[in-house]
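Records of this kind hold a single protein each, on a pair of labelled lines. With that in mind, the following record should read easily:
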Amino acid sequence: MKKADVKVGAILTGKSEEELKKPFQGKVEKIYENSALLSITSYDPIDEASISDLNHKIVVNFKNLKVGRVAKNSKVASTNEVKVEKVKPTMPKTEEEK
């Protein structure tokens, strides 16, 4: 893949023989001269310990990146999104609380 084809926010498939055994998928966070910083979003369970050690981020050379799909047995990394919902009271209010 060429630098011109890589855009911040794009989801790409990458490989890294040094760090991970299987291909992974990640979101481009920053573009460098010959590589890109990816936030790993989907990966093979065999690489779970390595992904954790990398804090779900990795720098990958453009030649090891391509547009691709998630493998069937891949694990999706958790996000930091928090959902807040209102909870209904379980006990009826007493006369004093009304």
In short: The chain has one helix and six strands. The beta strands are 11-14, 24-31, 35-43, 57-61, 65-66, 75-76.
